[in-house]
Amino acid sequence: MIALAEGISFLTLLCIAMPxxxxxxxxxxxxxxxxxxxxxxxxxxxxxxxxxxxxxxSFMFSLYAFIASIIPFGTFVLDKQLREKEVVxx
Length: 90
Description:
Layout: H1 2-24, H2 27-54, H3 59-68, H4 74-89
Helix pairs in contact: 1-2, 1-4, 2-3
């Protein structure tokens, strides 16, 4: 859920807040959305570290999950892959 929230906040920052700052002269929107996104990003990275050790993910998969958080739509792709992996495991 945090990955999806982080992904939504990232897209909101890129697609709504940034255009509002540069085309409408509303920099405060970026400050608010950016702060929310920053908090969610830190939470995502912290939880990623916990999950990495708890579920013994490989370093490469954890790195992939981290990179997914800095690419637009990356967390959505990661979520889909994890759900498919969970279905196969069950």
